[in-house]
């Protein structure tokens, strides 16, 4: 029905940068809010950053000033630019999108996750 696919994760040294991408495809009429979440081993999944269809953004305190979320509505894609990465940013990062399908059904969809590891 609707698929979200993340890419861009990997291994990076502390202080480095990564850019995550998440593309949505399928039976999409419109996408409302999109966001990035992360889950570290033994911890609950947490919201990292979110963006509305109009471009308003919100960030977790732990990433403010270091991460930037953006989106391309024409491509149904959301990005997360991560700078000044720290070891505590290590986690599986998940993309979420609130999608209105072509049958006008509104629900959230998740990607499969991409691993980000910050280590020297």
Architecture blueprint of SSEs:
Layout: E1 2-7, E2 10-12, E3 18-26, E4 28-39, E5 46-51, E6 57-59, E7 67-72, E8 77-82, E9 91-101, E10 106-110, E11 114-118
Parallel strand pairs: 2-11
Antiparallel strand pairs: 1-3, 3-8, 4-5, 4-9, 5-6, 7-8, 9-10, 9-11
Architecture overview:
With 120 residues, this protein is mainly β. It is built from no helices and eleven strands. The mean pLDDT is 97.
Short characterization:
With 120 residues, the chain is mainly beta.
Gyration radius, to the nearest Å?
Answer: 14 Å
Number of DSSP-assigned strands: 11
Helicity level: under 10%
Integer average pLDDT: 97
Q: N-to-C SSE series?
A: EEEEEEEEEEE
**What coarse outline follows from CA principal-axis ratios?**
elongated
Low-confidence stretches: none
Query: Number of helix segments?
Result: 0
* Strand coverage percent: over 45%
Main β-sheet, in a few words?
Answer: 7 strands, mixed
End-to-end distance, in Å? 40 Å
The SS-based structural class is: mainly beta
Features:
4-stranded antiparallel sheet; 11 strands; mainly beta
């Amino acid at each position: 029905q609707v698929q979200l696919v993340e890419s861009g994760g990997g291994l990076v040294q502390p202080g480095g940068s990564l850019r995550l991408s998440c593309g949505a495809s399928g039976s999409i009429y419109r996408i409302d809010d999109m966001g990035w979440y992360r889950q570290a081993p033994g911890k609950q999944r947490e919201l990292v950053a979110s963006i509305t269809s109009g471009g308003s953004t919100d960030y977790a305190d732990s990433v403010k000033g270091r991460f930037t979320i953006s989106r391309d509505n024409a491509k149904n894609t959301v990005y997360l630019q991560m700078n000044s990465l720290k070891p505590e940013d290590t986690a599986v990062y998940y993309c979420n999108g609130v999608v209105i399908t072509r049958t006008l059904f509104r629900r959230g969809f998740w990607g499969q996750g991409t691993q980000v590891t910050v280590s020297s």
